[in-house]
C-alpha cells in the first residue's frame, strides 16, 4: 500500500452470516446495516434474508483477547447462562435497510405493553426500529424480541432511521419516497411531520446529540439541515460535487461531517455553513487502479464517541481512522470486500464495519491509542493558532477534546 502512513488496525472478531441456501436469491438486493445500542449492551446486525440478529454485548466473556489474534465467531445459536441476555432473531418479513436503537423509559412502555402484551410481565427498556423495503417501520422490544409497533406512511424503501438521543422517543425516517418523516412513539406512534424538500431518494438522516438539529442527505449534492423544534428547513450546505451518502454530528453537536461519492468528507460548522475541513480519500492501492470505478467513493462516516476521531469506509476497501485535525488517516484496515457502513462502540475502543456480503468485523486499535493522543496534542496545539478557534463552538469542542486527550 502506497502513501498510507498510520497504523494498521487489528481485527478483533468477525460475525459470519450462516446463510440458508434457499434464501440465496434474495441476497443480491440486500443492503446491510448495523448498530450498537446507546448503552453498549446490544449489537443489531442486519445479516440478510430479512433477518436482524440482536447480539448481547460483549460478544463473549474473553471478548478482549490477550494476544489480539484475529478471532471469528459463527453466528450459530450460542447457549449462555440462565438469566443472561440471549441472541434474538427478528424476522422482519422484508429486506431491512436501516436500524436504530432507543432507550424506552419505563412508564409509557409499561402502559403500551400492558395494552398490547398483557402476558409479558417485564418492563421494556430498549427498542429497535427497523426500516423496511416496503416502506414500513417495525419497532421491536430488544429484551424479548417482540414486535411492538408497525409504523406506516412511507411510500417506498425506508433507507435510514435516527432516534433522538435524549430518549424522548422521537424517530426520524428517511425514504426513497423523497421525504423524511417524524414519528412520536409516545403519542400512539403518531406521524407528526412530513419533511418535504429533497428532490431525490433520501439516503441518510442524523439527529444532533443535543436534539436541536436534523441532517439529511439524498441523491443530491446539497446537505439539508432541519430544526428538530419546528421541523422546518434551517439551511442547505453546499460544497459536495456528488451525492452525499452519510452524515454524523460530533458528540457536542458543534461539528457535522458528511461523506460523498465525490471522495471527500466535509466537516462543517452546522450553524454558519462554514466548511472547516475537507478530508480527501486518495486511492492508495495501485492494484485497484481502475479508472471506470470511483474506488474512493465514500460509503459511511462516523465520529468516535469522544469526538476526537472519524472513521470512514470507502469503495477502495479501506476503513480509515482520522484525527480531526490531520489531513491524512492515522490508522487503517484493509478489508477483503466492499464495505458499506461503520459504527463505533458507544464506550469507544471498538469499531464495527459491515461488508457487502453481510459479514461484520470488529476492529480495535490498542497500539494506536497512545500515538493518537500524541498526534492530537500536536494537532490541537497547531489548531490553536487559527482564527477558527475563537468561534464559540470550536472553543467548546476544543475544551472537550483537550479534556479527553489529557485523560
Ligand atoms: C474461523 O474461520 C476459519 C476460516 O475462515 C474456519 O476454518 C474456522 O473453523 C473458524 N473458527 C471458528 C471457531 O469458527
Ligand atoms: C439454542 O439455544 C437454546 C437455549 O438457549 C437451546 O434450547 C436450543 O436447543 C438451541 N438450538 C440449537 C439449534 O442449538
Ligand atoms: C404489524 O403488522 C404485521 C403484518 O405486517 C402484523 O402481523 C402484526 O400483528 C402487526 N403488529 C402490531 C403490533 O401491530
UniProtKB/TrEMBL annotation:
It comes from the Eukaryota. Pfam families: WD40. The keyword Repeat applies. One of its GO terms (biological process) is protein polyubiquitination. Pathway: Protein modification; protein ubiquitination. Keywords: Repeat, Ubl conjugation pathway, WD repeat. This is SOCS box domain-containing protein. Coiled coil: none annotated. The keyword Repressor does not apply. WD repeats lie at residues 128-150, 151-193, 195-236, 237-278, 291-325. Residues 363-402 form the SOCS box domain.
Amino acid at each position: 500500500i502506497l502513501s498510507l502512513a498510520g497504523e494498521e488496525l487489528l481485527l478483533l472478531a468477525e460475525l459470519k452470516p450462516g446463510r440458508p441456501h434457499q434464501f440465496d436469491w434474495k441476497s443480491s438486493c440486500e443492503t446491510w446495516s448495523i448498530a450498537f445500542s446507546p448503552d453498549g449492551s446490544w449489537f443489531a446486525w442486519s445479516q440478510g434474508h430479512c433477518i436482524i440478529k440482536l447480539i448481547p454485548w460483549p460478544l463473549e466473556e474473553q471478548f478482549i483477547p490477550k494476544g489480539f489474534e484475529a478471532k471469528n465467531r459463527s453466528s450459530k445459536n450460542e447457549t449462555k447462562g440462565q438469566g443472561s441476555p440471549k441472541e434474538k432473531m427478528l424476522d422482519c418479513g422484508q429486506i431491512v435497510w436501516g436500524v436504530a436503537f432507543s432507550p424506552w423509559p419505563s412508564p409509557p412502555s409499561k402502559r403500551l405493553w400492558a395494552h398490547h402484551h398483557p402476558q409479558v410481565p417485564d418492563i421494556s427498556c430498549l427498542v429497535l426500529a427497523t426500516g423496511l423495503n416496503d416502506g414500513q417501520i417495525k419497532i421491536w422490544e430488544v429484551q424479548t424480541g417482540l414486535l411492538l409497533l408497525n409504523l406506516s406512511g412511507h411510500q417506498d424503501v425506508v433507507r435510514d432511521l435516527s432516534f433522538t438521543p435524549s430518549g424522548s422517543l422521537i424517530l426520524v425516517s428517511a425514504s426513497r419516497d423523497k421525504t423524511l418523516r417524524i414519528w412520536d412513539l409516545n403519542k400512539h406512534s403518531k406521524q407528526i411531520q412530513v419533511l418535504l424538500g429533497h428532490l431525490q431518494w433520501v439516503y441518510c438522516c442524523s439527529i444532533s446529540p443535543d436534539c436541536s438539529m436534523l441532517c439529511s442527505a439524498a441523491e443530491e449534492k446539497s446537505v439539508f439541515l432541519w430544526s428538530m423544534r419546528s421541523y422546518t428547513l434551517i439551511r442547505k450546505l453546499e460544497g459536495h460535487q456528488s451525492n452525499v451518502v452519510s452524515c454524523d454530528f460530533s458528540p457536542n453537536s458543534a461539528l457535522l461531517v458528511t461523506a460523498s461519492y465525490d471522495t471527500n468528507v466535509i466537516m462543517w460548522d452546522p450553524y454558519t455553513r462554514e466548511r472547516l475541513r475537507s478530508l480527501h480519500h486518495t486511492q492508495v492501492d495501485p492494484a485497484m487502479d481502475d479508472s471506470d470505478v470511483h474506488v474512493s467513493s465514500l460509503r459511511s462516516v462516523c465520529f468516535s464517541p469522544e469526538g476526537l476521531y472519524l472513521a470512514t469506509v470507502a469503495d477502495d476497501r479501506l476503513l480509515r481512522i482520522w484525527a480531526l485535525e490531520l489531513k491524512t488517516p492515522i490508522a487503517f484496515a484493509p478489508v477483503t470486500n466492499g464495505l458499506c457502513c461503520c459504527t463505533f462502540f458507544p464506550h469507544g475502543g471498538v469499531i464495527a464495519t459491515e461488508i457487502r456480503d453481510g459479514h461484520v468485523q470488529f476492529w480495535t486499535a490498542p497500539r494506536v491509542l497512545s500515538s493518537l493522543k500524541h498526534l492530537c496534542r500536536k494537532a490541537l496545539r497547531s489548531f490553536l493558532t487559527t482564527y477558527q478557534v475563537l468561534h464559540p463552538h470550536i472553543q467548546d469542542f476544543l475544551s472537550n477534546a483537550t479534556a479527553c486527550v489529557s485523560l
